[in-house]
């Protein structure tokens, strides 16, 4: 995917899909109130993606990050989650530094498919087989969250778990459309190998964004 970085003014503009205040529904911070900033554009292309509408960045003209920051800082929870799409496509230093100035913690959800910019309080790495993570993102990750569609995906999960730091938290998350089929095998696997935790998309059960 070719991203015209010049029009983004070194990250002062970003292709915003949506931004909203909600509850984190997945992983270690499940249940935590946070402001979500969803960026458009993704070249990873997961067949089961529930946000395919975000893939084409041309659908979402760049907006001024300062406008996003103003909205993010107006809510009680001082935490912002950057997601997508694939946010590592873009220069995120300005966004992060300005969030920090406002006392807002920075969290990111990324496949690691591109070199990550920005300063992060929490990096959730969700690697995808069709476009593996690059650079040293495994060592930077605070949380490894692997989406499991079928049991053989556990091999991919273990391959990535072998690359992260000892402090990184490990999560297996059932792909939503296969939840009923795969959840019991995942529970059994986590019970057998308790380094793993189970993550579910709790926001979908709660019927919130």
Polypeptide structure, described:
By secondary structure, this protein is of the alpha/beta class. The chain has a single domain, classed as TIM Barrel. 23% of the residues lie in helices and 24% in strands. It contains 6 helices and 9 strands. It has helices at residues 65-72, 93-101, 137-140, 153-161, 179-192, 202-206; strands at residues 13-23, 33-39, 62-64, 79-83, 105-110, 122-125, 143-148, 169-174, 196-198. Strands 3-1-2-4-5-6-7-8-9 form a 9-stranded mixed beta sheet. α2 (93-101) links the parallel β4 and β5 (105-110). The longest helix has 14 residues, at 179-192. The radius of gyration is 17 Å and the shape is globular. The two termini are 27 Å apart.
User: What is the level 1 CATH name?
Assistant: Alpha Beta
When the domains are counted, the total is: 1
Structural class: alpha/beta
Task: Count every beta strand, where a strand is a DSSP E run of 2 or more residues.
Answer: 9
Strand % is 15-25%
CATH topology: TIM Barrel
- The assembly state of the depicted protein chains is single chain
Write the CATH architecture name.
Answer: Alpha-Beta Barrel
- Tell me the helix content: 10-25%
Using only C-alpha atoms, the radius of gyration works out to: 17 Å
The major β-sheet equals: 9 strands, mixed
Low-confidence stretches: none
- Number of DSSP helical runs: 6
Order of helices and strands: EEEHEHEEHEHEHEH
Task: Give, in spatial order, the strands making up the sheet with the most strands.
Answer: 3-1-2-4-5-6-7-8-9
């Amino acid at each position: 995917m070719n991203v015209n970085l010049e029009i983004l003014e070194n990250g002062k503009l970003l292709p915003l899909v949506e931004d909203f205040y909600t509850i984190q529904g997945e992983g270690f911070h499940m249940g935590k109130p946070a402001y979500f900033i969803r960026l458009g554009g993704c070249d990873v292309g997961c067949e089961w993606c529930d946000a395919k509408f975000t893939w084409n960045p041309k659908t979402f003209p760049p907006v001024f990050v300062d406008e996003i920051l103003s909205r993010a800082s107006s809510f009680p929870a001082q935490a912002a989650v950057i997601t997508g799409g694939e946010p590592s496509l873009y220069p995120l230093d300005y966004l992060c530094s300005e969030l920090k100035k406002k006392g807002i913690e920075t969290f990111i959800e990324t496949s690691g498919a591109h070199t990550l910019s920005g300063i992060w309080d929490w990096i959730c790495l969700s690697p995808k087989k069709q476009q593996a993570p690059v650079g040293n993102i495994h060592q930077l990750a605070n949380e490894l969250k692997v989406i499991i569609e079928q049991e053989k995906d556990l091999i991919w999960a273990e391959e990535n778990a072998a690359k992260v730091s000892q402090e990184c938290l490990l999560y297996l998350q059932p792909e939503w459309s296969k939840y009923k089929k795969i959840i019991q095998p995942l529970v059994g696997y986590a019970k057998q190998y308790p380094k793993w935790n189970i993550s579910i998309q709790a926001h979908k059960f709660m019927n919130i964004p």
